User: Which sequence fits this backbone?
């Protein structure tokens, strides 16, 4: 059982919805860079609580990613390391195409990421 979670995101919609009510780390960085920040937190002892490749949107199609990590630090969790490294490898296989979309599509991508995160938060809250 976890003692809570930290939201790690590069999604401005997630920031807007959660910054005043949740522990949140918001960065204006790329999808790959937010995965790297999660990797660094995992190496510090945080545990990954949501899958870094959740949903059916490929890393090259959206610039947004939000994840839950444990608040507490412990021993480095090998399962979390494997998941985040797999996600980083998958991300490197694709060239980002998201800059080909019109601005309203970015709002859709933000909403998709928010919906996936919200589902993960609901599950995490049940197990607290």
Assistant:
């Amino acid at each position: 059982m976890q003692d809570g979670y930290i939201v790690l995101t590069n999604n401005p919609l997630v920031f807007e919805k959660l910054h005043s009510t949740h522990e949140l780390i918001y960065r204006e960085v790329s999808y790959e860079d937010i995965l790297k920040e999660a990797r660094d937190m995992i190496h510090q002892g945080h545990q990954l609580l949501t899958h870094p490749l959740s949903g059916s949107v490929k890393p090259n199609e959206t610039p947004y990613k939000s994840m839950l990590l444990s608040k507490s630090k412990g021993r480095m969790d090998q399962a979390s390391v494997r998941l985040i490294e797999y996600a980083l490898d998958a991300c490197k296989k694709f060239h980002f195409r998201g800059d080909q979309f019109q601005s309203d599509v970015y709002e859709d991508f933000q909403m998709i990421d928010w919906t996936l995160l919200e589902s993960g938060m609901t599950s995490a809250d049940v197990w607290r």
Notes: The helical segments are 12-18, 31-43, 78-93, 103-126. The longest strand covers residues 5-9. The chain has one domain: 5-126.
